[in-house]
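User: For a benchmark we're assembling, each entry needs the component sequences followed by a predicted structure for the full assembly. Here are entry 17's components. Please fill in the structure.
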Amino acid sequence: MKVVRELENRIERKLYRQGKILGGVYVGRGQEAIAVGSCIDLRADDVVCPSHRDMGAFLIRGMSLRTIFAQYMGKKTGATKGKDSNMHMGSLEHNLIAFISMLGDNVPVAAGIGLSFKMRGQDRVVMCSFGDGATSRGDWHEGLNMASVLKCPVVFICNNNQYAYSTPLERQMAVENVADRAPAYGMPGEIVDGNDVLAVWNASQRAIEYARNGNGPSLIECKTFRMTGHSAHDDASYVPQELFDYWETRDPIRRLERTLIQQNILSEAGIAEMDKGIHAEIDEAIAIAEKDPYPEPEDCLRDVYFEEQ
Amino acid sequence: MALTTYVDAIRQGISEEMERDDNVFVLGEDVGIYGGAFKVTTGLLEKFGETRVIDTPISESAIVGAAIGAALMGLRPIAEMQFADFISCAFDQITNFAAKCRYRWGAGIPIVVRAPSGGGIHGGPFHSQNPEMHFVHTPGLKVVCPSTAYDAKGLLKAAIRDPDPVIFFEHKYLYRRVKEELPDGDILVPIGKAALRRKGTDISVITYGAMVYVALDAAKELEKEGIDVEVVDLRSLLPFDKEAVLESVKKTNKVILLHEDTRTGGFAGELAALISEEAFDYLDGPIRRITAPDTPVPFSPPMEEFFLPKISDVLRVARELHAY
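Assistant: Structure for entry 17:
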């Protein structure tokens, strides 16, 4: 979680402002516990369909910091070799499916991945993530329904950060909770504190086992808050300051740190030491990515279709 | 040898590929127990079981999305749209997810989306459309429109084996109206290659799908008047066989572009641009288009007949062009 926080701080607050990263930048500040808690227990052969505030998923699956920074900078060494931007990263080697901007499109895709496991008799599962806004899209509903009808081994995980760009939850849905929709699709739904990594981890473990044992999909709604604007250019002036203040006290990283300190597992000094290590690792990755080459302009013509190597 | 209809040829293609490769499977609405709205998949459930012939909810977007997911894991899904008209519901998954995965992150999406298209069956505005151009305008996809039983089988098998997403427009009007003897064994028709259906010297008619037969019937009439028409069946629209088009135009020096799709933004416009750019000096007359008008497909028989390009349209335009 701390690596994610620092990585995204550098991306949004430094490299973007320096003009070294262009285009859209969307970070998951305050939501780090969700991707980390939901993905930490997956097997390497399980598949993750992350959404756009799930940087932790990429790190847990083993994508390197250098690849990620290079991706954001549009370098040839990025996950998409400069073809696509920001967190639109995928890697079949890491069983990570690249997100697309049409929210909720990864939901039916996750159902199909799960379907393939079922067809082949494999006990693999899919972790599929989305925000509260995505749950208004037809693909989300079609995908949940199909996954449930075909009993696909998928864990659907909602980052309910209460704002979709500027639109608050009550303008997004007329039900109180995303999880309230689960019974309509015949699957279990559960609400967890999305800022408590242990709670997310716990619920995910259960849902993963449920799917792995052939029971079909389930939905976990993680209540959280977006501690930024929608993207780097958005100052979120439409969000009441009290909400930021309240959720600041529930910061998932500080909460885990406090718990670990109380239980004498970690000390303030240990945390400072950890931070130092993270900073150094990130400094190094940025330095390498900055030196990495851009793609050749003509490379834009490649890989539209399969090419014989 | 028995004659094989266009619809049977498609079923044979699916069945043979499913026998050849365990990764090939079928999903869609009513494809299993019912055997498909047009009976294309009849018998496949009994033969291959419900693991590989999957009835789905009415969710075109999720059908294609699930096909994409399965393809990402190495399977070879054939997704059926019950009518090509309904492919609009899956437009986003096809054009944004399937078409761009390889380009973005190197993940090929080897899916086939079968789409029964075309008019002449009194289907009205939502069961008669020819929506191929939405997909021809999407880099990353391949689009085929077979006109014969042989091509339907051969292009389908090629599409299933293709490493990229292929939209397979099968013309409903042809399902049981065209038939031919098919050779035993594997039939593969390469995607992107046209077929010369009739050799001629005076005028080229470049067409595809059900309009191939309109062109051929018109050519027979015109032969009696001493007008020798060449008919080129494109078979594939993306990629399409530029060489075959240019070769024919350079030979006959006069060209008619014929399609059942509506006029504005139709494939004829693309062909006209190609011919102007690369064969302008060979033209002895204006490039002429024969297409459906820019309206939805009407239901009532007199209106539908008026709407669809027909033999008399080809005769009229060919005579004008011949006299030019």
